[in-house]
């Protein structure tokens, strides 16, 4: 594991820290300030627990069962029971990086001092993360309100030495065995601690943060693929002039146009080789690429603002404030759920315009002199015909994934929890959408690079040539007779996901937005 250490304090965390812990295996340490704040807040919980008056989460049942007062002799059992009973997930296992993000973000809230847990509970969460132990969390179980309850419960279960977890070697084993091997003592939960481990938007927030990190790279890649397609279609780069975009001052649009212009600088293909009827303007999928990608960039900026606010938040119910324990509704996932759905819409539309550009490259009636389907010997060879089918299937799936989960709500807990966010579901479908977008852009890149190479005698822009050379160096073959396309498409998808198109282009453009 990476020996980089993320220090968790009382004031939240950053998106970069979430990615470092979730994906890169960064170690976690608790700041002295966080440990002191945890101890101070716990004193307030202990004082309230000693009083005869019922306090929600400390000496009562939960949800619709909150009317029952629980005596001191049953409170340890109460906290243990809420974890066991709420660990009700079903379906496939959630990815390791999602579980690590989930646990790290719950630790962030614990360290805020608003949850009232003992310092040793927070330290155990850090120890489990540092040991590379990943609790088994399931796909279904969260309604995105009262937090991501079932997913967080499966994490808390492992802290208690119960349930299953994946060890650092990738093998799933009983959590108790893994804790023992790493010298971690299972926690025995006291008043409020079981509830505090379960009550947050951590899963949906972690998935949002990682999706935004991926999409930053994919949106820049989309500008590169659009530029390559414009070149291959002998289009005009005059529509990318900054003064045209300044009169409609959306920052994302200006950034995308600038990226495309930088990639196309020095191209010998753009604008001057229209061998059929002169084109006054290119088709929307080419001409409006900065507007569509730019609108998506602005959507990401809004989502990033919401994520930053949530990363600075302490999400729990009840909260320990000034020695009081107060019920609240901050666990409701609506702010995160809305932007998860909003981003999924932008992703679907970016994929849609990329697919339309790809189809234009393959259609001899619209490709301005390119062979049908970019085939070597059309008729004998089918070229990239079915690659576009695959791309179209992905785009169709993305349109379904763009249907908002947050527009739905289903009541739970005997109508006590009668409105929920469905933010976890929004996050899960966004992860699927991000994966599909990478594949869609890979197909456009695969087609556009071949098409540029088929423009014999014309010289592409230096940045375009660098991207083509990098793709070929990655093992993806150029134009030629038909071959099995699946391996090339898989290699191109990995090329896109790794950010190598951006790295190659930036050798000539400098940093792209």
From TrEMBL:
SUPFAM superfamilies, per database record: L-aspartase-like (SSF48557)
Organism superkingdom: Bacteria
Compartmental location: Cytoplasm
Cross-link 5-imidazolinone (Ala-Gly) placement: 145-147
Organism: Streptomyces odorifer
Pathway in which this enzyme or protein is active: Amino-acid degradation; L-histidine degradation into L-glutamate; N-formimidoyl-L-glutamate from L-histidine: step 1/3
Stored Gene3D superfamilies: Fumarase/aspartase (Central domain) (1.20.200.10), Fumarase/aspartase (N-terminal domain) (1.10.275.10)
The name this protein goes by in its record: Histidine ammonia-lyase
Family annotation (CDD domains): PAL-HAL (cd00332)
EC number: 4.3.1.3
BP GO terms, sorted: cinnamic acid biosynthetic process; L-histidine catabolic process to glutamate and formamide; L-histidine catabolic process to glutamate and formate; protein homotetramerization
The reaction(s) this protein catalyses: L-histidine = trans-urocanate + NH4(+)
Family: Belongs to the PAL/histidase family.
Enzyme class, UniProt record, top EC level: lyase
Chief localization: cytoplasm
Signal peptide: none
Keywords from the named record: Cytoplasm, Histidine metabolism, Lyase
GO cellular component, one term: cytoplasm
Cited InterPro entries: Aromatic_Lyase, Fumarase/histidase_N, HutH, L-Aspartase-like, Phe/His_NH3-lyase_AS
Molecular function terms from GO: histidine ammonia-lyase activity; phenylalanine ammonia-lyase activity
Annotated positions of the 2,3-didehydroalanine (Ser) modification: 146
């Amino acid at each position: 594991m990476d020996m980089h250490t993320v220090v968790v304090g009382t004031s939240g965390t950053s998106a970069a820290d979430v990615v470092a812990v979730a994906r890169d295996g960064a170690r976690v340490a608790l700041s002295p300030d966080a440990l002191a704040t945890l101890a101070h807040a716990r004193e307030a919980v202990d004082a309230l627990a000693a009083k005869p008056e019922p306090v929600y989460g400390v000496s009562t049942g939960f949800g619709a069962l909150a009317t029952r007062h629980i005596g001191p002799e049953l409170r340890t059992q109460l906290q243990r029971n809420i974890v066991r009973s709420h660990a009700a997930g079903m379906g496939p296992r959630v990815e390791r990086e999602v579980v690590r993000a989930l646990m790290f973000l719950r630790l962030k809230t614990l360290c805020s001092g608003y949850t009232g847990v003992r310092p040793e509970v927070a330290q155990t969460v850090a120890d489990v993360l540092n040991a590379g132990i990943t609790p088994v969390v399931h796909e279904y179980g969260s309604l995105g309100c009262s937090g991501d309850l079932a997913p967080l419960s499966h994490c808390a279960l492992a802290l208690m030495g119960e349930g299953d977890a994946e060890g650092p070697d990738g093998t799933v084993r009983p959590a108790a065995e893994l804790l023992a091997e790493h010298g971690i003592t299972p926690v025995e939960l006291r008043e409020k601690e079981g509830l505090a481990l379960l009550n947050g938007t951590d899963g949906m927030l972690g998935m949002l943060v990682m999706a935004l990190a991926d999409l930053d790279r994919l949106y820049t890649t989309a500008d590169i693929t659009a530029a390559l397609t414009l070149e291959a279609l002998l289009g005009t780069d005059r529509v990318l002039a900054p003064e045209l975009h300044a009169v409609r001052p959306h920052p994302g649009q200006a950034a995308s146009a600038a990226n495309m212009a930088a990639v196309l600088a020095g191209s010998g293909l753009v604008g001057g080789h229209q061998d059929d009827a002169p084109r006054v303007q290119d088709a929307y999928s080419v001409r409006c690429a900065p507007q569509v990608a730019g609108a998506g960039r602005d959507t990401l900026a809004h989502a990033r603002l919401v994520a930053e606010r949530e990363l600075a938040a302490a999400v729990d119910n009840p909260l320990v404030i000034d020695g009081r324990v107060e019920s609240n509704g901050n666990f409701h996932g609506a702010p995160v759920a809305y932007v998860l759905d909003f981003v999924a819409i932008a992703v679907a539309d970016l994929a849609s315009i990329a697919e339309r550009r790809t189809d234009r490259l393959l259609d001899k009636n619209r490709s301005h002199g390119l062979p049908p389907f970019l085939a070597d010997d059309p008729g004998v060879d089918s070229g990239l015909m079915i690659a576009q089918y695959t791309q179209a299937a992905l785009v169709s799936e993305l349109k379904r994934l763009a249907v908002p989960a947050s527009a739905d709500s289903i009541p739970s807990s005997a109508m006590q929890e009668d409105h929920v966010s469905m933010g976890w579901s929004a996050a899960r479908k966004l992860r699927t959408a991000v994966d599909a977008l990478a594949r869609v852009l890979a197909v456009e890149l695969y087609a556009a690079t071949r098409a540029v190479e088929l423009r014999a005698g014309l010289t592409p822009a230096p940045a375009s040539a660098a991207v083509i050379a990098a793709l070929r160096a990655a093992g993806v073959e150029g134009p030629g007779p038909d071959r099995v396309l699946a391996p090339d498409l898989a290699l191109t998808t990995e090329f896109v996901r790794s950010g190598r198109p951006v790295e190659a282009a930036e050798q000539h453009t400098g940093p792209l937005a």
